[in-house]
Amino acid sequence: MVVPGGAAEGLVAGPGRHTLVLRRRRGFVRLALAQGVPLVPVYSFGENDLCGTYAPGEDEAPFFHWSQGQVKSVLGIVIPFIKNIIPKPVQITTVFGKPIRPDPPQQPGQPTDEEVTALMARYEEALLGLFERHKEELAPNRAEELMIRD
């Protein structure tokens, strides 16, 4: 399994928020094409609700976000500033979509940028569809809809 959001996604995580940092993360798509394996869209509802974090734009948080950005730029990791250390008792439900294969099928090898772009678009569309299908049941108190960003 590959989790492409990485440290950057940790900076935008928080209760009720559904933001994926994915658009510039194309290496996993290129790797799947090169190896001839499908991409399986997966989304976990409730994961960001475990702990309260300082959200970007909160009046009390500018220093926290500035220092997190500095650490991320130097070390490539994010050290979360958590409001409450003890996780809340939250249900986490992971949903899986159908495997996405290149269309048309191709032999494993070096994919072109066009093939990567096309498969990435289908992957993002599948993630958005998963969220839409399950959001009312699994994220009724969401603060935002699913956003996919750079």
Q: Give me the oligomer status.
A: single chain
Shape type:
globular
| Secondary structural class | alpha+beta
Strand and helix order: HEHEHEHE
Q: What share of residues are in beta strands?
A: 5-15%
* Counted beta strands: 4
SS element count, helices = 4
List the strand order in the largest sheet.
1-4
- Give unreliable regions as ranges: none
Task: Summarize the structure in short.
The chain is an alpha+beta fold. 36% of the residues lie in helices and 9% in strands. The longest helix has 26 residues, at 113-138.
Q: Could you give the topology of this structure?
A:
Blueprint: H1 6-10, E1 19-21, H2 27-35, E2 42-45, H3 62-75, E3 93-96, H4 113-138, E4 147-149
Parallel strand pairs: 1-4
Antiparallel strand pairs: 2-3
Can you tell me about this structure?
It is a single chain. This protein has 150 residues and is an alpha+beta fold. It has one domain (6-138). The protein has four helices and four strands, in the order H-E-H-E-H-E-H-E. It has helices spanning 6-10, 27-35, 62-75, 113-138; strands at residues 19-21, 42-45, 93-96, 147-149. It has a two-stranded parallel ribbon. The model has no long low-confidence stretch (mean pLDDT 84).
Descriptive key words:
150 residues, 36% helix, alpha+beta, globular, two-stranded parallel ribbon
